[in-house]
Structures are given as C-alpha cells and as structure tokens.
C-alpha cells in the first residue's frame, strides 16, 4: 500500500470521528457548579440598553429575558428562577453572557442567545447557540475549582471521540512504516 493511501485512510478515520451536526460551541459543567455561557455582540461602541432585548432560551422555554435596560423575569421558566444572571456592568460593551448557578442535569440543552436592538438606532438582531453538557462528578474526578465556575475542559465528552481515535491512527502510521519511532 502506498503511503499516500495510508495517510488518506488515517485522515478519513479522524474526520469521521469528529462530532457532527453541532454548528455551535459545547461547554461542560458538573451538577452543582456555576457555568458561564458566552454570548457577545459584534457591534462597535457602547450599546443603548434602553432599546435592547436579550433572550436566553431553549427552544420556546424562556431561561432569561432582559428588556429596556433591566431584567424582566416574569415569564422565566420556574426551573431557572434564582439561578440565572447577566453581567449588567458589561452589557453596554456587548457581553451578554449568561451565568447559570447550581447546574442541574436537566439544564443540559442547546441554549440560544438572541440580542435585538430597536428604536431610533439601526435594528440589529444577533443570534448564537451554545450547547451545555452536564454530568455528575465521579468520585475519581477533581472537585470543582474554589470559585465554583466551570472551565472549558479539553477532555469534555464533546471531544472524547477525537481523543479516542488518535492512538489508533498513530498505530496505523507506525504499522505501515510511515511514522518511524
């Protein structure tokens, strides 16, 4: 077998191991932690929050709503009551990230952040999706950081298939004589 064919086979194996159907970033948190789901606008300069709406939702379920310069949580799903907050001092600079406290297994979902600017200013609508993966910490895993904030883990379940295929790919390269130790 030619080495080009072997390299092509390894590339195909790596490509097929990648997660599919996820045009959004995935974040991992453990039950009980606090996680920040990122969302930011690309607008330049300070934003007029009095003419803004910010929705955080899962499909049609309302997780957090910000309207006319303040939180408007009357229609918030009760499951999220008292567990969500925004970074109010950073919103005028385009940071619409959602802080979710006391993460639960049921919080695992694809979250949509929708920002709308209306009024006399040019109408702007921006939308982004973030997947939250939630798991129960095992007794062998590290405990959450003292701050309680979850960090993006390079070994989160979303990248596990990619890591699992690497030893096999390396073995194939060595066996075919393409990679010499």
TrEMBL record:
Sorted alphabetically, the Gene Ontology BP terms of this entry are: cell surface receptor signaling pathway; cellular response to lipopolysaccharide; immune response; negative regulation of T cell proliferation; positive regulation of T cell proliferation; T cell costimulation
User: What are the record keywords, sorted?
Assistant: Cell membrane, Disulfide bond, Glycoprotein, Immunoglobulin domain, Membrane, Receptor, Signal, Transmembrane, Transmembrane helix
Using the record, list the residue span of the signal peptide; answer none if the entry has no such feature. 1-21
Q: Which InterPro entries is this protein grouped with?
A: Ig-like_dom, Ig-like_dom_sf, Ig-like_fold, Ig_sub, Ig_V-set, T-cell_Activation_Regulation
Q: Where are the transmembrane segments?
A: none
**Compartmental location:** Cell membrane
The residue ranges of the Ig-like domain are 19-131
A single Gene Ontology CC term: external side of plasma membrane
What topology does it adopt in the membrane? Single-pass type I membrane protein
Q: Which domain of life is it from?
A: Eukaryota
Q: Which SMART domains match?
A: IG
Major place of localization?
Answer: membrane
Q: What is this protein called?
A: Ig-like domain-containing protein
Q: Which organism is it from?
A: Hypotaenidia okinawae
């Amino acid at each position: 077998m030619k080495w080009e064919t072997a390299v092509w086979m390894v590339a195909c194996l790596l490509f097929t191991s990648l997660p599919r159907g996820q045009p959004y970033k995935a974040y991992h948190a453990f039950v009980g932690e606090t996680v920040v789901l990122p969302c930011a606008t690309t607008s330049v300069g300070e934003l007029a929050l009095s003419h803004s709406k910010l929705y955080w939702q899962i499909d049609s379920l309302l997780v957090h709503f910000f309207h006319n310069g303040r939180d408007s949580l009357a229609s918030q799903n009760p499951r999220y009551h008292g567990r969500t907050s925004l970074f109010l001092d950073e919103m005028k600079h385009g940071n619409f990230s959602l802080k979710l406290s006391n993460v639960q297994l049921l919080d695992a979902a694809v979250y949509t952040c929708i920002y709308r600017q209306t009024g006399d200013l040019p109408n702007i609508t921006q939308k982004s999706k973030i997947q939250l993966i939630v798991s129960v910490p095992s007794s062998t895993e590290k405990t959450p950081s003292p701050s309680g904030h979850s960090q993006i883990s390079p070994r989160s379940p979303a990248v596990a298939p990619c890591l699992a295929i690497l030893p096999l790919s390396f073995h194939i390269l060595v066996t075919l004589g393409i990679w010499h130790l």
